[in-house]
Amino acid sequence: MHSLLGGFGILAQDQALFYRIKEQPELIKVFVEEVLRYRTTIQAIARISTRDTEIGGVKIPKGAVVIPVLANGNLDSKKFEGPETFVLGRPNANQHLTFGKGIHTCIGAPLARREMQLTFEHAIKTIKSITLDPLRPPIPHIGGSTNEYGFDSLSVKIEPMPTLDLIFPRAT
Ligand code: HEM
Fold first, then answer.
1. Nearest-atom index, ligand 1, CA of 45
2. pTM above the 0.90 mark?
3. pLDDT one-digit tens code per residue, 55-97
4. What sign does the dihedral 125-22-109-83 (CA atoms) show?
5. Which residues line ligand 1 (CB under 6 A)?
6. What are phi and psi of 68, to 5 degrees?
7. What CATH number belongs to 2-166?
8. SS3 14
9. How much distance in Å is there from the Cα of 127 to the middle of ligand 1?
10. Residue 87 to residue 80: CA distance in whole angstroms
11. Is 149 helix (H, G, I), strand (E, B) or coil?
């Protein structure tokens, strides 16, 4: 849900981006990857070190609790150029850490990606324009049991695509 809202928020605040994707629906896959990177839903996970090791010059003893902050990795300028900018078609967008890494990588990642792709495919087909609702500002969501980041509420104004279905109802 947070990832979907994150994506709708980006479309609603950038009309040019919305119309570009509407004209080129094949961009939805890369759009979804950049949403996942840019709006990292689960900010941090926890690990216990199984041996003495060293990461980035920091010694980590066996048994230490380590909190990898996935969101920081996704905003690392050594990995992603201009990380705080949403770039549609960023070449390495899918190298984000949003689903974790290693043996415990999110098992639901393919499903989450597919759900996002289908949702945005449907949205760009059926929505003529989308903007943020100036009367109802977004309510951020930060924290929770899995260090989530997103929106509790994100109100947008949608103008639907015109349809002939109202005049000629589909046979059911
Ligand atoms: C955008 C949506 C989602 C995000 C951002 C997300 C993110 C994550 C993250 C960060 C982890 C921890 C990975 C690690 O410890 O290295 C995780 C684990 C997991 N996720 Fe997801 N997830 C999402 C959707 C789903 C869905 C749809 C399912 C199931 C239908 C799911 C099932 C799981 C399970 C079972 C684990 C534990 C895997 C393990 O410990 O081996 N997730 N997820």
1. 15
2. yes
3. 989 999 999 999 999 999 999 999 999 999 999 999 999 999 9
4. negative
5. 3, 41-42, 45, 98-102, 104-108, 111-112
6. -70, 125
7. 1.10.630.10
8. coil
9. 30
10. 10
11. strand
